[in-house]
């Protein structure tokens, strides 16, 4: 076959390789092994073969034609199976021979195949494609409004991404700059130019008499340069002072932001608690009746004090052990045993040891009117500050103190009027009820840092018109109605009413009892004429105090300004069940005995304390140890025979099993200070006493063994 161009020249392609007809073509199993056969001149062939092998089409070389032969011999890799020993070793002479290599085009390799969506009308699949297109058009027409077609979306699952964050200290950047306007430059230049100019004029006037004209010109030029230097220096001084002032302001703002930040406040709070624990550790240990730890770094004086405390506790332990041994001898007369117990000189008498005081600058000068423990947290104490006298009235305070910080209260509630009574709720321990001198009742939430009142009685039409002298949350059994126990807030006021308050959307109350005045019983002498009754300003007597029975909360006692004590019932609000007459002045406090529930105490402004039995209207015992008002009295929570009382001059501890004439121990108030209220601590032998200067002192009762009997 020959190929001719337009000019008639023979342009038939010649084969690139013509094998020698005398040589035998070796059949090889692997073409890579034939690289030695072809040598350096066969590199084109190997590259052609590598393209054949990569394309995967037949995997063979198309043709290798020997020179001088017109037959085309095809070599296929499938037919090539030659052993290793048949490979001919070439010599240097063979390398010098001329070899012809024929290159042919391989089949097309499709790297990207995108089939066409267009079909020829003359193709075999044209009819089938037309039918499919017709069906698709019908589907599109019937699709709108058809329930059989629902649009759905699919989303492939993406690999879960991992977010890695690195935290480092915040890099604080500050941009500092200063803006100088043209008028600032002008003013500073003029201010600096006035003084040098005046100096230059003076110098020119002095030197002008003995100098020439050119000297004057040089002097003027020199002064002008000096004035320019002076203006530059003054402007720099002004700019530096402005920069320093601005830096000082920024530092103040930054320090103020640090001091007011929440993290800083919280860190200060924790640090304050740690310092308080370190400072008051021995006193808090004594309060909780824990052993006092000895610090190895303390001084000799402190170690002596600790040794004395340990010695006193050891003596107390020996005394208790001796009492237990003596109680085993039941055949001995108790009076003889009491005499024997009093004879030894080793017995340490009871005493009050002062531990610390709750006082700060905020409460200094405010009289302590009432105190109450939290029903849930035995370390949380609420203290009300307010004056009892009308002439000394000022704004009051209600503070919540914690044992963890005796130097500053945890919560401070400022009141418009003096606080006269307060108490914690049992059902909702976060609620603190506060009664004030103007008759208003307010409830605060101690969990909130805000000192705003949660509820108040300002909108109540039945609010008190006189001071609220006492208030208390009382749990009353509602078993008859099936509601269980229900907590009520009870208040007594100087307007002669005992009220029950309801907590709803607002505070409102109903009258539990109106305390009517009672005539004093005076014996009529024989032959004496009947006197006319004095006209009363009010038909109601001012209420001063109350206390509910510890077992049956349906009954309660109410003390009045007349000196009478009325026994009342919640079921009857018209009349009193009993009236106890014994005091000659206002009754400041009544208290049921928690163990012997038939007995109760009362204290009055007539300098006396009276022990009553509820079945007798005649006083059983009267205690009077000082000529001063007795403001408060309270039974011990551990013994039925021990109670404490405070008058204006001292606090007293009475033990009825030891003496009914004198208190077993007492502690006097500081000069010009009056004691106002008293409270036993919970779960410990300690006593809290409030005074007229706003100080709540904590005392430890030492060497006071509580009797085992539960009756007075």
Automatic annotation (TrEMBL):
WD repeats lie at residues 580-622, 623-657. InterPro entries: Dynein_IC, WD40/YVTN_repeat-like_dom_sf, WD40_repeat_dom_sf, WD40_rpt. It is found in: Cytoplasm, Cytoskeleton, Flagellum axoneme; Dynein axonemal particle. One of its GO terms (cellular component) is dynein axonemal particle. One of its GO terms (biological process) is cilium movement. It comes from the Eukaryota. PROSITE patterns: WD_REPEATS_2 (PS50082). Pfam families: WD40. SMART domains: WD40 (SM00320). Keywords: Cell projection, Cilium, Cytoplasm, Cytoskeleton, Flagellum, Repeat, WD repeat. Its main location: cytoplasm. Residues 221-231 have a biased composition (Polar residues). Residues 1-20, 196-231 are annotated as: Disordered. GO terms for molecular function: dynein heavy chain binding; dynein light chain binding. This is Dynein axonemal intermediate chain 4. It comes from Spizaetus tyrannus (black hawk-eagle). The lineage of its organism: Eukaryota, Metazoa, Chordata, Craniata, Vertebrata. The gene is Wdr78.
